[in-house]
């Protein structure tokens, strides 16, 4: 008569036990997209914007700078999808090429402004002391002046152009990012899990890197998308006012300003398509940031998708 232990060994010898395989990554992505349809649409918009920013000029069917006196004010058609302007420029080609200006502007503002500002803000809020004092007083001194006044001052000192605008906007993003993340770090460092980890002997660097940093990542992502959206809108606004790219260069704000003053009242398509490009991209970045925040931090989950 066999015992229970012997029966167990016999079953184990005849049957193989395997850990079930996890879901493929594409199924997990499809599930998240199905639960967040608005965020999925926003991701498509942002991905398309980045793609056009990199390859838009190469995909343009016409030279965006080429003049054609025989093709003035043509309406949207199969030959010119978005029509043509006063100089015969193909608006579709200029819209594709203009995405590169906005992408470049946004990347520079993020890398030189917001990302260093996030690092300074986290260190400032977590460490406090004299470092916090220096960073925050510098931010207050910068924000005490109107942004337009600072921009005009820099233009008077260093000359007009997109590089001057990039420098001013990047510095503004640095200080705004530092102030935002300082508040988040101040709140997060007081929470119980940080106190418990410190009680176990964790170093301050480990607390900041392994505990505080990952838990404030949703706020960073929301700030990232928001700053990029603002950067696109600012570039378009400043180019519209003549403070950005040089006149004639393909830019959504530049084209919007020129077309509005040259036939925009008679031919609405001249201003519709550049304005639509700006609106869709800015909305896409904002909705994508909200969706990423909802996915990564359920405590902040809102109504951007179907998740309950």
pLDDT below 50 for ≥5 consecutive residues: which ranges?
A: 302-308
The shape, in one word, is: flat
CATH architecture: Orthogonal Bundle
CATH-level-4 superfamily name: MetI-like
Tally of distinct domains: 1
Order of helices and strands: HHHHHHHHHHHH
**Overall number of strands:** 0
End-to-end Cα distance: 56 Å
**What structural category characterises the helix and strand content?**
mainly alpha
Roughly how much helix do the residues carry, as a percent range?
over 70%
Strand content: under 5%
State the name of the first-level CATH class.
Answer: Mainly Alpha
- Helical stretch count? 12
Radius of gyration: 26 Å
Q: Mean of residue pLDDT? A: 83
Q: What about the largest sheet?
A: none
Would you tell me which CATH topology applies? Answer: MetI-like fold
Summarize the structure.
The protein is mainly alpha-helical and 308 residues long. Helices cover 71% and strands 0% of the residues.
């Amino acid at each position: 008569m066999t015992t229970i232990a012997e029966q167990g060994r016999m079953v184990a010898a005849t049957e193989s036990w395997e850990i079930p395989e996890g879901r493929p990554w594409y199924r997990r992505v499809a599930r998240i997209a199905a639960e967040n349809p608005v965020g999925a649409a926003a991701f498509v918009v942002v991905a398309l914007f980045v793609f056009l920013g990199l390859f838009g000029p190469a995909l343009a069917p016409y030279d965006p700078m080429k003049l054609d006196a025989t093709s003035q004010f043509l309406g949207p058609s199969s030959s010119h999808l978005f029509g043509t302007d006063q100089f015969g420029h193909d608006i579709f080609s200029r819209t594709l090429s203009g995405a590169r200006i906005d992408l470049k502007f946004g990347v520079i503002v993020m890398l030189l402004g917001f990302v260093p500002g996030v690092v300074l803000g986290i260190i400032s809020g977590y460490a406090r002391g004299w470092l916090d004092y220096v960073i925050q007083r510098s931010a207050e001194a910068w924000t005490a002046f109107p942004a337009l006044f600072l921009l005009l001052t820099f233009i008077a000192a260093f000359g007009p152009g997109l590089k001057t605008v990039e420098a001013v906007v990047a510095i503004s993003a640095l200080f705004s990012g530092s102030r935002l993340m300082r508040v988040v770090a101040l709140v997060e460092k007081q929470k119980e899990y940080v106190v418990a980890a410190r009680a176990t002997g964790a170093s301050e660097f480990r607390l900041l890197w392994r505990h505080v940093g990952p838990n404030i990542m949703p706020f960073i992502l929301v700030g990232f998308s928001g700053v990029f959206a603002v950067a696109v809108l600012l570039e378009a606004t400043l180019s519209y006012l003549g403070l950005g790219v040089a006149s004639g260069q393909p830019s959504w704000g530049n084209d919007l300003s020129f077309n509005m003053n040259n036939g925009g009242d008679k031919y609405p398509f001249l201003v519709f398509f550049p304005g639509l490009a700006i609106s869709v991209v800015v909305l896409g970045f904002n909705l994508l940031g909200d969706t990423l925040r909802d996915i990564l931090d359920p405590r902040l989950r809102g109504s951007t998708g179907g998740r309950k």
